[in-house]
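Re: the request from the purification team.
They wanted to know what the chain is likely to look like in 3D before they choose a buffer screen. I agreed to run a prediction and write the result into the notebook, where they can find it.
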Amino acid sequence: MSTKKEIRKLEPEALEEALALVWEVFAEFEAPEYTQEGIEEFWRFIDLEYMLMQMGEGNMTFWGAFEDEYLVGVIAMRGLNHISLLFVDGEYHRRGIGTALVKKAVSDGKLLDPEFNTVTVNSSPYAVPFYTALGFKPTDEMTEEDGIRFMPMKIEA
């Protein structure tokens, strides 16, 4: 039996499910290394109403990775070139889903802006090896703001 795999842009009505997946994956893989302040800050950032507003204003675009119509991964881009969120269901790690989400977001960005040439991310400590494997390079040292630890990184697209 074959599995139907698809990456597609998410519409506002799919955002609640997407953010629930983001929170679930964050809670399992990221939160154990965060302070309470960092966990609360992340929760505020992924607020449904805030994200709907960001989508509506064109500041944030979401894509979802689906396997047989089951949402297994989410990427959100701020503008065309900054990865704000990238989360894949733990059962689907190491299957190329995160890489496929990044490639789709970048290819869509290039279609919208021919000058598009750099992608940035503030990677969590957990995701640094993933981004490094994709070719991202640190642009600064590990930083902490509002309890959120991250490594600023970029790649020429």
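For the purification team: Strands lie at 5-9, 60-67, 70-78, 82-88, 118-123, 137-138, 143-145, 148-156.
Please add any questions underneath this entry.
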